[in-house]
Amino acid sequence: MINIVLPVDFGEKTDQLIDGAVKFAKQVNGKINLIHVAPTDIGFAIGDMGYQYFPEVEENEIREELIQLNKIQQRILAHDLDCEHLLKQGIAKDIILEYAKVKNADFIVMGSHGRSGIYDVFVGSLTKGLTKSSPIPVVVLPIHD
Prior knowledge:
Layout: E1 2-7, H1 14-28, E2 30-38, E3 44-47, E4 50-53, H2 55-77, E5 83-89, H3 92-102, E6 107-112, H4 118-122, H5 126-133, E7 138-142
Parallel strand pairs: 1-2, 1-6, 2-5, 6-7
Antiparallel strand pairs: 3-4
């Protein structure tokens, strides 16, 4: 069976990415390994008293993201595909590459909004970073409007 790592960010195009990944997984007889990488600064805020950490905010956010990840997993399982998931905090590119290695992934499936230029300079592009540094083939699915 082909192992596919599918990073998700719960953005507005996640549904399109999932649909494309499901189609791809069916074509190659694949198993989908979902991963969501939460930022490490959840729960931190700058206010009148300076930089503060609110663990309850972080716990609530992680709980909500796990619920979303479970829903996506159920959606994929409904297509008769094997699927498991992981939620970790850290630097997305590093965590995804580590997970792909642990899962002995054959492919990483990412979405591309087709943005470039100034957007990449200021925001960066996880897909672009992975395609440059991954020893595992990265399948990029267009998820435009």
